[in-house]
Amino acid sequence: MAGNTFGTLFKLTTFGESHGKAIGGILEGCPAGLPLDMEAIQGDLDRRRPGQSAIVTQRKEPDTVVFYSGIFEGKTTGTPIGFAIYNTNQKSKDYSHIKDSYRPSHADYVYDQKYGFRDYRGGGRSSARETASRVVAGAIAKQFLGEVTFTAFVSQVGELKLNTPYQELDFSNIETNPVRCPDPEMASAMEAYIKKIKKEGDTIGGVITGVIQNVPVGLGEPVFDKLHAALGKAMLSINAVKGFEYGSGFNGVQLKGSEHNDAFNTDGTTKTNNSGGVQGGISNGMDVYFNVAFKPVATVLQGYETIDKDGNMVQTKGKGRHDPCVVPRAVPIVEAMAALVLADFALLARGNKM
Amino acid sequence: MAGNTFGTLFKLTTFGESHGKAIGGILEGCPAGLPLDMEAIQGDLDRRRPGQSAIVTQRKEPDTVVFYSGIFEGKTTGTPIGFAIYNTNQKSKDYSHIKDSYRPSHADYVYDQKYGFRDYRGGGRSSARETASRVVAGAIAKQFLGEVTFTAFVSQVGELKLNTPYQELDFSNIETNPVRCPDPEMASAMEAYIKKIKKEGDTIGGVITGVIQNVPVGLGEPVFDKLHAALGKAMLSINAVKGFEYGSGFNGVQLKGSEHNDAFNTDGTTKTNNSGGVQGGISNGMDVYFNVAFKPVATVLQGYETIDKDGNMVQTKGKGRHDPCVVPRAVPIVEAMAALVLADFALLARGNKM
Amino acid sequence: MAGNTFGTLFKLTTFGESHGKAIGGILEGCPAGLPLDMEAIQGDLDRRRPGQSAIVTQRKEPDTVVFYSGIFEGKTTGTPIGFAIYNTNQKSKDYSHIKDSYRPSHADYVYDQKYGFRDYRGGGRSSARETASRVVAGAIAKQFLGEVTFTAFVSQVGELKLNTPYQELDFSNIETNPVRCPDPEMASAMEAYIKKIKKEGDTIGGVITGVIQNVPVGLGEPVFDKLHAALGKAMLSINAVKGFEYGSGFNGVQLKGSEHNDAFNTDGTTKTNNSGGVQGGISNGMDVYFNVAFKPVATVLQGYETIDKDGNMVQTKGKGRHDPCVVPRAVPIVEAMAALVLADFALLARGNKM
Amino acid sequence: MAGNTFGTLFKLTTFGESHGKAIGGILEGCPAGLPLDMEAIQGDLDRRRPGQSAIVTQRKEPDTVVFYSGIFEGKTTGTPIGFAIYNTNQKSKDYSHIKDSYRPSHADYVYDQKYGFRDYRGGGRSSARETASRVVAGAIAKQFLGEVTFTAFVSQVGELKLNTPYQELDFSNIETNPVRCPDPEMASAMEAYIKKIKKEGDTIGGVITGVIQNVPVGLGEPVFDKLHAALGKAMLSINAVKGFEYGSGFNGVQLKGSEHNDAFNTDGTTKTNNSGGVQGGISNGMDVYFNVAFKPVATVLQGYETIDKDGNMVQTKGKGRHDPCVVPRAVPIVEAMAALVLADFALLARGNKM
C-alpha cells in the first residue's frame, strides 16, 4: 500500500488499523525550536474523539496521544516526531457479520480484491480512526504556522444549509454546540435532525466549510501542486468526502469574467474574493475558504441484503456504534489537513528566492 | 518552484513558459514494449490547440510535439520519454500593459511577490499553455491503459446545464461540435451563448464531466492517495478549476445512507453507483465519473482599473486573443490528467500482493 | 530534518532518539500476503543488540520489537507496518560532560549548529541505536525476497585483514564467534586484538564484506538509482561508515579493460565477476559483493581536550559503555540495508515491461 | 525505468539516449533571481566533451546546450529550467556487432533481460553521454552555491598514484594538462601511459579525488541522507564507478579512535580532518574530500568471444572511438554531481530552524 505519506517537507506518515494495537504516525520536517502546546494537541484530538456528544458514535476511546521522539525540553528538536494512539476499545466483538460478507459502499470488497484478504475488524485501515493521527500532526502544523488561523464548521446537514457568508458568522459559536455550526438556530435544527436520523437507524451527509486566515502571500507551487489542488486532495483524502470547491466554486461557473474578477486595492488586497485567496495556485493574502462535501456514513442500522465472499446473496444488518452524521467530528480533521497543506507550502516557500 | 512533477511511478515532469523557446516534459516509468500510436497523441494535442474553431482563442499555434528519447522502432523502451513543443507564435508583441501592472484574478501579482520578478510574456509559467505537455503524456497513458476509456465533455456553460445522466448520452456526438457537448441541442445553445459572450468582450465559466470506463478493480491507494483524491488534485491543478466532485458529489450530502448505499449484485458490481466507482479510495470496477468546475477566464477585453507594481491605480484594457470560455479546449486536458492518475495507480497496483 | 525515509516503494521511515521513550518506524509497501517469521526478525535484532558478547558495549537493552499494525493472522496485510522498540535503559545518568561540550568526531557540534540545540542524552538521533529500526525492516525485506540470501561478515579489524576470497570461506562459521568473521583463526586474532584495544580504553575500525546471492537479473534503475549506487548510499548511511566499494572496487582501477571484463558463458552468467553482479547499474544474476569501511568509534575512554558551547577549551574524558569496535554488531545492519535496497528494486522491477 | 531524478528540492530529471535526437533535462527548484553565467555552463560541458585531446575519444560532438525555459533576462525565474543537447554525431553506423550480441561488462545483456529489448545504438540510455545533462545542472548548482568551490582531479591512473595530500597540490595546474592531474610530472607520466594503453587497443581505470571547500556548517540530513551518503550515491551513479570513500576512507579502518578523532580548535574548526568535513552526516565547515574509483572502460578494441541473443558463442571485436581511460573527462562530472548534492542540502537546510 502506497500513499501513507502526506507532504513533501512537512511530512506525515501514518500507520494503523482500527483494531490493531495502536495507530500513529511520524511527522518529519517540523523545524527545530518550536515550543509545543501539548494541551492544544490533545484538545484537537478530543474534538475528534468518539463519545463526545449525543449525536456522535458512543464508542468510548480516550484517544490519548503518546509522543516517542522529536521533542526535548518542550520544544521540537527537528528530528522526526513519532507518536501513537493506543486502541483501547478492542472488545472481542463478534465480527462475523463483516468477516465473510461485504457491506455496501464500504471498502470491504475492494480491499479483498486488491490485497487478497483484509483485517476486517472494525474496518481495518479503511476505518476513519486513522484520521486521529492526522489531527495530531495538524495540531503541530497549526502551532508551526503561528498567526495563520484555521477555522472549520458545519454549514450543511442533509438539506439544512447555512447560506450566511462566513464573514457574517460568529466563529466563537462553533464549539458551543455539538454540531459545530456557528449559527445557533441552524445548529439546533441540525442537531434535532441528526437525532431523528439516528433514531431511524439511518445516516445523513453534510458539508464542512473551511476558512484559513492571515495567510502569507506566496504559498503554493503553481503547476501540479497549486495551493487549492493540494488542499483539495487533502480534503478528498478524508473518509466519506465526495467533493471540494474553493472560492466561488461550482457557483462561479455561472459568472462572467467581468463579474468574477477580483479588482485590486492599492495595497494588493482585492475588493472581492471570488478567487478564494488563491491566484494561479498561489496564496494572495486574502482568506482561503472552501467547502467539503461528505456523503452519509455507509453503516446503517437497518437490515439489508448483500453478498458474501462467494458471491451469494445474504441478509444482514448493521451493528455497532456509528456516527449518524460524520461532519461534526470531521471539523477538526478538515482543520488539520488544511494546516498540514499550509505548513508544507510554508517550508517550500523558503526556497523561492536566492 | 516545486510541484512540476505528477505521479509516483508513471511520472510526468514539465517545463516551459508561454513565450520561451519551448514547453515540454519528461515522462518516466512507462513500461517498455508499448507500441505508440503517434497520430493519437497529436490528435489529442489538436483537440487542445488554439485556433481550432470560432469559439476559442484565434492564436495560431500548431502545437506539434517532438519526441527526443524513450521510443525506439515505434515502441517505448522503458527509458524516459523526453519531448518538446516549440513556441512558434512568439511575436515581438507589446506586453507593456502587463509588464508593470497586475491583471485582476491573474497570477501576475502573486508571482512577483513569490519570486521577486516574473517572465510576464503571455503569462509565463502560469499560462495554460503548459497543459499541452500534460496532453502529450496523458495520450501515452491512455495507450498504456489499453481498454480503460476516458471520456470528457462539456456539461455546463454559464447557466446552461445538461441534466441528462451520462449513461443516456451519445458520446460519439462530443467531437461533432466545437463546444464538445454530447447533446446536439444543448451544444448549439452553448455555442450561441459563447459567441454572444465573446462579442461582449467577456468570458464565462463551465463544467466538464469526466467518465472513466472499464476500470479494473483495485486501483487507488487508500489513505492519502485515494483514487478520487488523486483525481481531484489532478483536476484542480488544471488552470481555472474551482471545484471537483465525483459520484453523488455535493448532491449526495442530502441523501440518507439507506438511499445512498450501492447494493451489490452477486458478481461484485453494484445496482446503483453513487460511489462513483470508488469505495474507500479504491476502484470497484464501476464507472468513475466526476464534475470539474471552471471559472470564467480572467482576461476580459474590456477596460478596467488595476494596480501597477508601485501600488498606483492604473486604467488598462485586456488585449490579445483569448478564449471566451475555456471548457471546450479543456476537455482533452481533463482526459489526460485522468489517464495519468490511472496509469500511475495501475503501476502501483503491481505491488499489491506477493 | 529530512531524510528519515529509505526506499521508493518498499519504504522505511524511522523515528527516535537514544534516550527518548522509544525508537521505531513505519514500513510501507510490503505486499500483502507475506507470512512473517517473527523469530527471525527478533533474531536479527538480537545479533545487533548491545551486551551480546565480551567485545561489544555492555549496555543492557533487550531491544524487543512491538508491532502495531500491518500484520493480521500472521501475514502482512499490505498496510503500513508500524513498530517500536522501547528504550528501557534510560538511567538518570549524568550527561553533563556532553551537554555543554562537544565530543571530537561526534555529531554534537554540528547538531547544535544546524538545529540551535539538541537532545544530548546518549547522542540523541545521531546514536547508532536508530539502526535497530533498520534491522527490523531489513528482516522483513529478507523474508519478502525469499530465495535471495544476504550474508555479511567482518573481513578486517584494524590491520588484521582477511584476504581469502569470499567463495572460499565457510559462511556457517560467521555466527560461531563474537567477531562474526568466517575464518576461525582470523576470528580469534581479531577478538584478541579488540580486547586489547578495549583494555586501552581505545577503539579500532574495520571492514564488513557483504555478499548477496541468488539475485534475479534486472534489479536496479540504471541512471541515478543504479543498484550499486543505492547500495552504496545504504551502507554510507550507517553510522561510522567511511567508504564503499563493490566488485573489483578500488583495486579494479589498476586493471586493464581486457583483464577486467567478465566474459560470458552461454547461459548469460559470466566466467569472472569483477562487475560484482552489476552491469550498468542493473543486476546480472551473479553474486553482488561489496566492502564497507567503518572508522573507529569516536568515544574513547581516555582523557582529552575539547571545546564547550562557548568555545572554551575544556578537559574531559569519555564515559559509559561503548563498543571498542563497531563491526561485529554492524553485520546485521549491513544485511538489513542491503535487503531494503533489493526489496525496493524488486518492487520497482514489476513495472519494467508491459 | 525509475531513477531519472536526482535531488529533493534542487532536482534534476534527465532524458535521452546516445543516438536519439537529443539528451537533456529539467532542473527544478533553483531559486529565482540567480544571474546565470552561460559561458561557465558551456565551459564545464566543454571539459566533458569528446574530442578535446589526444587521450580521449575522438568522436566529434560539440555538446552545445540549448535552454528552453526558466531563465528570463539572464536570471533564473524559479520555474523549471528545461534544456537539451542535440545528438549531432548520429551517423548511420553499422551497429550490427552490438545489436544481436552482448558486449562483456556492458549493460547490453541486462537491458535486454530487464526491458525485453533495447535501443542498442551507441549504448542507448546506458551511454555515459547522459552525464552531459548532469554537467549542465551541476554548473548551475555551482553558481547557486556561490562561494563553495568544487575541485576534482585525477589522482590515479592504473598503478600511477599521486600520494601528495591535496593541500599540497596546486589546483591551478589541473586544467593545464589533458589528464587533469595537478602534479605536472605525474600528469606527464599518466598521459604517456594512457597513450600506450590506447595503442594497445586497451583501457585502464583510475581515481578522481574531489575537494569541496568553503562549505557552510550544517548541510546534510543525518539519518538516511547523510551528506557523505548522498555524495557517495551521486558518485556511484556515474558510469564506471566502483568505489567511494571520504575523509580517512578505507585507510581509516586501521586507525585507533584516539588517532582518528579530530580535535577541536576553539572556533569549532578541527586540527585534523579525518572526518572529511562531515560529522554524523552533517558538514562541519572543514573541507569535504573524497575519492572515486573508476574501472577501465569495457570497450576494448581487441577481438573477443561473447554470446549473442540466442546464447551462441560469437567472435567479435570492439569498434568505434572510445576513451582509453575515462577519468580525464569524468572530472567535471564528479564536480557537477557534488554540486548537485550540496545545492539540494543547502535548500533543505533552510528548513532547519523556526
Task: Please specify the SSE layout and strand pairing.
Four copies of one chain form a homotetramer.
Chain A: E1 5-6, E2 11-15, E3 22-28, H1 38-48, E4 65-67, E5 71-72, E6 75-76, E7 81-86, H2 96-99, E8 101-102, H3 108-115, H4 131-145, E9 149-157, E10 160-161, H5 184-199, E11 206-213, H6 227-236, E12 241-246, H7 257-260, E13 278-279, E14 282-283, E15 288-294, E16 303-308, E17 313-317, H8 327-348
Antiparallel strand pairs in A: 1-2, 2-3, 3-7, 4-7, 5-6, 8-16, 9-10, 9-11, 11-15, 12-15, 13-14, 16-17
Helix pairs in contact in A: 1-4, 1-8, 4-8, 6-8
What can you see in these coordinates?
Four copies of one chain form a homotetramer. With 354 residues, the first copy, chain A, is of the alpha+beta class. The first copy, chain A, has a single domain (5-349), classed as Chorismate synthase AroC (Chorismate synthase, AroC fold), CATH 3.60.150. The first copy, chain A, is 25% helix and 21% strand. Chain A is built from eight helices and 17 strands. In chain A, strands 1-2-3-7-4 form a five-stranded antiparallel β-sheet, with helices on one face. Chain A is globular and about 65 Å long. The model of chain A has no long low-confidence stretch (mean pLDDT 95). Chains A and B meet through strand 1, helix 3, helix 6, strand 12 and helix 7 of A and strand 1, helix 3, helix 6, strand 12 and helix 7 of B. Strand 12 (241-246) of chain A pairs antiparallel with strand 12 (241-246) of chain B, so a sheet runs across the interface.
